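Run log // design_07
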């Protein structure tokens, strides 16, 4: 009986991957036989030109379904035929959010003399990839199209910067380990350009449309609770008058390489200390799943609650943990329910992009800061470009 239960649980664990595989197996290639409008659930959003080919990921009685950026759209089956060409890649990261003020041409390559494969309607919000030369790549019907930078209005949103460990000098190839000189350069840039640093509470209120923020606002976050957040980052942040957030793995507090209880108590003038699990910051490389993807809702709740209580007991008073960063960015519906039950009101992913009003509070994006980026790239991320 125990073996059967274990097998059943493993099936449940695999279900997200199984669903994706099933969805991928339905992917087909189509050719547009007559220039056709493309719709979301509410309105016409684009036009695909006759003769262009696209990838469809699903179909209903009347429509083929595909993607524009991160959004699923549909077109009439009467305007397309299935072809034998292999399906294109129909998933991609699109961290830049843009709006159209007029009909915008989608090109088949990033060049002045490129051919149009369709257009996006005016007053549409779309997700595109980061600027390459003069063009923004965008997923259009399973292939990459290109839109000239002058055709789009970029919506900056609010950047949430994601840091991990800081070092005085690099001794490894881990891009997440950042030299302190680069960190200082970035903080100097924020200070010189009048950026306002936020707390998770302030950002959450803004996302929920319950508050306003200065135009140049940024949330600075650190994952895992490395000792370098105290020894190296803290003096710089304090000198600049900045706030930051530290997501702690609470079972690791007081280790040699991580923050101590005394560190937490003494640095609250800069850091908001929040939840990054207690014991559940683990990853199964065999299944490609984290514990927050396959443990039960009750088990996840108990771990999150333990992390909350650990931080709250160290800080004392009426301090309440309210934010969480998903380990490896991986989560499940059960994990979200568990977080909510434990009093967490917002949670952060590692998905690239800025945060916007109306976003899901349990699916907040961040901008990964790594050692290979220069100051211009850092500035572009701040602006959501």
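design_07 sequence
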């Amino acid at each position: 009986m125990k073996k059967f239960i274990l097998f059943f649980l493993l099936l449940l664990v695999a279900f997200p991957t199984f669903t994706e595989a099933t969805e991928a197996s339905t992917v087909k290639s189509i050719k547009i036989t007559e220039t056709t409008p493309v719709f979301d659930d509410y309105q016409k959003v684009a036009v695909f030109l006759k003769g262009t080919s696209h990838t469809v990921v699903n179909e209903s009685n009347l429509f083929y379904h595909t993607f524009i950026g991160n959004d699923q759209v549909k077109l009439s089956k009467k305007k397309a035929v299935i072809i034998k060409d292999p399906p294109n890649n129909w998933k991609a990261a699109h961290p830049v959010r843009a709006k159209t003020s007029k009909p915008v041409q989608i090109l088949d390559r990033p060049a002045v003399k490129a051919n149009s494969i369709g257009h996006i309607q005016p007053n549409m919000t779309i997700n595109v990839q980061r600027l390459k030369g003069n063009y923004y790549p965008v997923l259009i019907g399973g292939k990459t199209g290109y839109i000239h930078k002058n055709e789009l209005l970029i919506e900056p949103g609010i950047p949430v910067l994601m840091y991990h460990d800081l070092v005085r000098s690099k001794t490894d190839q881990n891009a997440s380990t950042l030299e302190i000189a680069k960190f200082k350069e970035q903080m100097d840039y924020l200070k010189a350009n009048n950026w306002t640093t936020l707390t998770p509470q302030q950002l959450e209120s803004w996302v929920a449309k319950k508050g306003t923020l200065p135009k140049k606002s940024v949330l600075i976050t650190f994952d895992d609770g490395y000792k370098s957040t105290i020894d190296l980052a803290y003096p710089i942040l304090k000198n600049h008058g900045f706030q930051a957030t530290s997501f702690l793995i609470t079972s690791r507090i007081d280790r040699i390489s991580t923050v101590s209880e005394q560190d937490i108590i003494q640095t609250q003038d800069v850091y908001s200390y929040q939840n990054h699990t207690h014991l559940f910051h683990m990853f199964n490389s065999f299944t490609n799943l984290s514990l927050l993807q396959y443990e039960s809702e009750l088990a996840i709740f108990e771990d999150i609650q333990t992390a909350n209580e650990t931080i709250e007991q160290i800080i004392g008073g009426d301090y309440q943990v309210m934010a969480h960063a998903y380990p490896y960015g991986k989560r499940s519906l059960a994990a979200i329910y568990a977080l909510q039950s434990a009093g967490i009101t917002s949670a952060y992913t590692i998905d690239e992009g800025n945060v916007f009003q109306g976003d899901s509070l349990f699916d907040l994006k961040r901008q990964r800061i790594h050692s290979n980026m220069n100051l211009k790239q850092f500035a572009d991320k701040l602006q959501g470009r």
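The longest strand covers residues 217-224.
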